[in-house]
Design brief:
By secondary structure, the protein is mainly β. The chain is built from 4 helices and 18 strands. The chain has 2 domains: 159 residues, Trypsin-like serine proteases (Thrombin, subunit H); 81 residues, no CATH class. The N terminus and C terminus are likely disordered.
Length: 290
């Protein structure tokens, strides 16, 4: 049974390749984390930050408001529009938006159509007062990320960046007593299954995965709820889904495409790439390789 998301869990092989000692995971986790954090700070992943207990992605600003993409279960919604008080911490560990704002969830979250699970409608927008611009590595205003209006690419790599507990192989996850802003990590898997007419995306995880023969070397964990799933499409990283839930061998996410009209109705300034045809399977493929 899928559980609420717990940050990134990586396979034994990747941990070892990055200099980790499988006999002393806690003592060697620091060096591995540095390498994965560096990957997480490549553009456009700098749009990823965190909310209390969850991950979120900065979409841009309008009229002194910051707009964030996250999971519905990360916000205390009571209807489609709910007043909230929250904050968003950037990749630098700085609060760039905080105070009284608004949480939005789509109608499908409140009144799900038949055949649509909670994980297929686990998406929210958060509007918070802008306190400072979100910078890139050069200190210039960050370019907003691009959302993809087509179907996520089945069997293609998916990039994950999140905050929260760490894990290696099949071991229990833990925060290693590391502050949240320092738990930012990068991982990668592949979208292996698409269910519920493409609304629900699944990326398998293999605790013993050895890249490149298996790209299924990372999964989500506690604190990753709301994290964007990124895919390289036409030479550019696009957000294709939002982390919802997961378990020991898979991560689940809500596809962005079906909700783009709703997102645009709240934040018209979103950056969107036109659809590039990708076939959707509503049944398990039984395959984890291209």
């Amino acid at each position: 049974m899928a559980q609420p998301c717990q940050a990134i869990v990586i396979s034994d092989a990747v941990f070892h390749q990055l200099g980790g000692d499988l006999n002393h995971v806690e003592k060697s986790m620091g060096a591995v984390a540095i390498a994965l954090r560096q990957q997480s700070e490549l553009s456009p992943f700098l749009a990823v930050g965190y909310l209390p207990g969850c991950t979120a992605t900065w979409l841009g600003e309008q009229a002194q408001w910051t707009y964030l993409l996250t999971a519905a279960h990360c916000v205390p919604y009571q209807g489609e529009v709910t007043p909230v008080h929250s904050q968003f911490i950037s990749w630098q560990g700085m609060p760039i938006a905080y105070g009284d704002g608004v949480a939005y969830v789509p109608p499908a979250r409140l009144h799900r159509p038949a055949g649509l699970s909670a994980s297929a409608a686990d998406i929210a927008l958060l509007k918070l007062p802008t306190r400072r611009p979100l910078p890139d590595k050069a200190g210039q205003p960050l370019t907003p990320p691009t959302l993809y209006q087509g179907a996520p690419l089945l069997h293609a790599p998916v990039n994950l960046v999140g905050y929260g507990e760490w894990g290696v192989g099949a071991r229990p996850t833990t925060n290693y007593e590391i502050a949240t802003e320092r738990r930012r990590l990068y991982g990668q898997s592949r979208i292996t299954h698409q269910f519920e007419h493409g609304y629900l995306q699944v990326a398998a995880y293999e605790p013993q995965a050895i890249p490149p023969s298996s790209g299924l070397w990372a999964r989500i964990a506690k604190g990753d709820s709301g994290a964007a799933w990124w895919q390289l499409i036409a030479g550019k990283q696009h957000i294709v889904a939002v982390t919802s839930s997961g378990h020991a061998t898979a991560s689940n996410a809500t596809a962005i495409g079906p909700y783009l009209p709703w997102i645009a109705s709240i934040f018209p300034q979103i950056s969107v790439t036109p659809r590039i045809t990708s076939p959707i399977s509503t049944h398990p493929t039984g395959s984890t390789t291209p």
